[in-house]
Amino acid sequence: MTEMVFRREDVRAFRFVRCGFDAASGEAQLVYAFDDGPELVETVRFPAAPFVLDEARAAGVERALRLLHLIAGVSYYKAAVPREIRIDSYAIDADTAAFLTEVYENGLGEFAYRNGLDLRGKIRFPAERVAPAADAPALGLSSHALVAIGGGKDSLVSIEALRAAGIAQTVSWIGSSPLIRACAERTGLPLLNISRQLAPELFEMNKQGAWNGHIPVTAVNSAILAVAALLVGADQVVFSNERSASYGSLIPGTGEVNHQWSKGWQFERDFARHLRERVAADLKYYSLLRPFSELAVARQFARLDRYDGHFSSCNRNFHILGERPAQRWCGVCPKCHFVFLALAPFMPKPRLLNIFGRNLLDEAEQAPGFDALLEYQDHKPFECVGEGKESRAAMAALAQSPSWREDALVARFRREILPQLQAGELELAPLLVASAEHGIPSPLWGALRAHFGA
Hints:
Number of helices: 16
Structural class: alpha/beta
Distance between the termini: 60 Å
Shape: globular
């Protein structure tokens, strides 16, 4: 092979070359390129092949595959962020182009901020001047949910809520994490593990100075599971993104930058509509936890105990599956800090310490990390954590608890931070009330509210 040479400043165009799916093997290929450079081939493998698809379902899979091709391209586009975007082998209409521009601009918000780039108004997908696409047909999908699992508390709360509501479900994930597999197996439900292999050239590009950083991975995974749902005939793709995901970090001089934009309500609403109108009329996409705060989800998780020794929300230490709970939590990242703080008001202290293997709130040196969660002299971390008001309310509740009030960081909060806060913004109860903003199907919503006691 000729050695690849990549100079991001020389790139003029990013190309969506083609995409294809082999029903016999279950393998999808997503092909991209910069200018006339080498093809970048990403492979997604769906288990349980061969797939026997009638004409209508095969056409639906093709529509879903093109959407996946367009969204997954963000992993490659970001390497050079050229002004020109080309789609070589099919055309898109103006509505689809506008949706993709929204996904790329917002989903690459943190990437742009960290790299000192301004992408607003510079990402333009080429829309063909064609008549608006006809609404997608219903494909006769079965009442069944593909539920995304990430190994953390949120997806486990969703899985148990769907189980309580009597919804048939398959626990689904992308990648080879042993921790996610262990959590998935613990549910005792049918499993679907999809593999995704990025084009190897991307890693070489990174070594040669490609722009790099955070992408809207939930958007990519959502598109992968939409394809999977059509292949297996399921009518629902369910994620577990709560309402706090819609709010980003407020950066002085910059404004709001949302690390988890594709977990937020705007993406969920617009992606669900695109699937319904452009892919399959009977394919539903929603987050089961959208009406709830992180604290409400934490309260619900505290009512479970079957996953204490299996779950982890720690991104930094996520690849390690140890025999003891402490090995699944690094204890120093924003996710560890927030999950510990969110669970503390609702869980007996010995149980929480057993899960983490340590008391993070009694480690004085961790004060800066918790200050960021509180948005005290710092902004909210670029991580999937709750809003500052949730962290402040949780800490205020602990400040009144005999079990927690003398721990180093709780005592410091009482002394130094609490006097600067307004009493009205420290109440826990209002944060546990469900919101009306969600896309949950009506019959399920009633059962879910009862299950949460909301």
